[in-house]
Amino acid sequence: MDQNFQTSFIPKKPVVHERTEAKRPTGLLVIFSVLILLTVFVAYGGVYFYKNSLTQSIASKEKALELARNRFEPGRLSELKTLDRRIKAANGILANHVAPSPIFKILEATTMKTIRYTSFSYELKENGMVFVKLTGEANGYRSIALQSDLLTQNKDIMDPVFSNLALDTKGNVLFDLTFSVQESLVSYKENLTKGAYAEEEIYEPVDSEAGSPLELEGNEAN
User: Fold this and answer.
1) Does the CA dihedral 95-99-102-106 come out positive or negative?
2) Taking the model in full, what pTM does it have?
3) For the chain, what are the domain ranges?
4) Which of 114, 119, 216, 221 can pair with 143 through a Cys bridge, CB separation 3.0 to 4.6 Å?
């Protein structure tokens, strides 16, 4: 009995290698793209509706403003504008108006009987001060010295100076007097607010000897 066996380990069919391809995560990418697209559409829609709402609001307010304007007659509006300009002009004049009455009161209270003023002038300075100048005559040099002391003691009078002393034909001493006061002292608006003119007549300084008003002069600094 023939016992020769032929054993072969060579495969009779070609070996086929199976390849497994890894799956790509396409699902997450698609979901993410869809979410971004939806967000863009929602944002665009919100901006669109907000713009329309804002446009409607502006149109409504413009219409209400036009109706309010039409309630007033054009002629009435013109009168009100003219009145407003006049009020502003009056306030400006009142704010800059100077009333020297407080200075006259101080001089009346501090001037000795041996001193007589013959002229009065003032000038507004840019530093908020009022420069006052007077001319007058005194019975003697001693009267001028005493008068200078009285003016120095007054808190409203600053830097009183007597100058240009000279004797006239009658033996009286002629002089010039200068001093300064705060602008608030002679501000008509401030004194009016304080009620300084409530029960007061207009004060006009009078030459005590001649019985005639003093020569007044006021200048504003440029």
Assistant:
1) positive
2) 0.49
3) 28-94, 101-220
4) 114
State mean pLDDT over 170-182.
93
Residue 210 has pLDDT above 50, yes or no: no
- Report which of 140, 79, 118 is spatially closest to residue 207, judged by C-alpha positions: 118
Q: What is the 3-state secondary structure (H, E, C) of the chain?
A: CCCCCCCCCCCCCCCCCCCCCCCCCHHHHHHHHHHHHHHHHHHHHHHHHHHHHHHHHHHHHHHHHHHHHHCCCHHHHHHHHHHHHHHHHHHHHHHHCECCHHHHHHHHHHCCCCEEEEEEEEEECCCCEEEEEEEEEECCHHHHHHHHHHHHHCCCCEEEEEEEEEECCCCCEEEEEEEEEEHHHCEHHHHHHCCCCCCCCCCCCECCCCCCECEEEEEECC
What pLDDT does residue 213 have? 46
In this structure, are residues 115 and 138 in contact, taking their beta carbons and an 8 Å threshold?
yes
